[in-house]
From TrEMBL:
Annotated protein name in UniProt: 4-hydroxy-tetrahydrodipicolinate synthase
UniProt GO molecular function: 4-hydroxy-tetrahydrodipicolinate synthase activity
Species annotation: Pedobacter yonginense
UniProt entry tagged with the keyword Manganese: no
Catalytic activity: L-aspartate 4-semialdehyde + pyruvate = (2S,4S)-4-hydroxy-2,3,4,5-tetrahydrodipicolinate + H2O + H(+)
GO cellular component: cytosol
GO biological process: diaminopimelate biosynthetic process; lysine biosynthetic process via diaminopimelate
Length: 295
């Protein structure tokens, strides 16, 4: 599972001003991240605005991402939903060329029981040709995957290889680390708490702010994984304000404002999301300029 150690980045989906997918911007972004030293890419997670993309658009973005990446980094595809059979069908129909795993969010809106969550992932694990990364994000799904459910899945299915956990609950993280199989990965789903999660034993992060600042973020994560938290701390603290600003008006509006300033892609988002306000954009630009000492 070493391919998913370190810094993964949940790619934004760049859009043209007319709302169409900006493939030139996506190419720029992929190359920016590869050159920035990150460890793997996640295509079409929440940050990719998948809720507003058609199936045909998703297929094209996945294929394009694999083409531009050209096997330089491991690739993960985000395929999730709240209709178990439909998600399994999407996974089975997915062209996995160039991809190593699927990241699948816990079912949202339905508010299933823990047994329902288990049975959902059991169905996916038995259907998927690729390894699965679970994704727990209670702030979006309205339900939390318990540590018991997570570890039950980890022990029962060899192709369930890890979890991106954005619950923010260190008691839950403690229990996962205590009860999981040795090679099962706990991956941070929250940029600002990745350092303490790695101190606990997490394998790294699937990051949002890494879209804009891949070198600063991935260098800091590597120092953490090497156990040199004293060296990592200044960079960690320097990113606190940028990270706060990046999420201040929702994801990915803030990080897209940063990417526009960096001339990587535009800041267009699809409704119901809206662009970052001018005041927030200026604050983000100011913070980016402060990061040059860590580049």
């Amino acid at each position: 599972m070493n391919k998913f150690q370190g810094t993964g980045v949940a790619l934004v989906t760049p859009f043209n001003t007319d709302g169409s997918v900006d493939y030139d911007g996506l190419k720029n972004l992929i190359n920016h991240l590869v050159d920035g030293g990150i460890d793997y890419l996640v295509s079409l997670g929440t940050t990719g605005e998948t809720a507003t993309m058609t199936k045909e658009e998703k297929k094209k973005v996945w294929a394009f991402t694999a083409e531009i990446n050209n096997n330089r980094l491991p690739l993960v595809a985000g395929i999730g939903g709240n209709d178990t059979v439909a998600v399994a069908n999407d996974i089975q129909e997915f062209d996995a060329t160039g991809y190593s795993a699927i990241l699948s969010v816990s079912p949202y809106y339905n508010k299933p029981t823990q047994e329902g969550i288990y049975q959902h992932y059991k169905y996916l694990a038995e259907s998927s040709p690729l390894d699965l990364l679970l994704y727990n994000v209670p702030g979006r799904t309205a339900s939390n995957m318990s540590s018991e459910t997570i570890c039950r899945l980890a022990h029962d299915f060899k192709n369930v290889i890890g979890i991106k956990d954005a619950c923010g609950n260190f008691d839950q993280f403690n229990q996962i680390m205590r009860d999981k199989p040795e090679d099962f990965l706990l991956i941070s789903g929250d940029d600002p708490i990745t350092l303490p999660m790695i101190a606990l034993g997490a394998s790294g992060i699937i990051s949002v702010v890494g879209n804009a600042l891949p070198r600063q973020f991935s260098d800091m994560i590597r120092q953490c994984l090497a156990g040199d938290f004293k060296a990592a701390l200044p960079a960690h603290l320097s990113l606190v304000e940028f990270t706060r600003l990046a999420f201040a008006e929702g994801n990915p509006a803030g990080v897209k404002a940063a990417l526009k300033h960096l001339n990587i892609c535009g800041d267009t988002v699809r409704l119901p999301l809206v662009k970052a306000s001018s005041a927030l954009t200026q604050a983000i630009v100011t913070e980016i300029e402060k990061q040059s000492q860590f580049a």
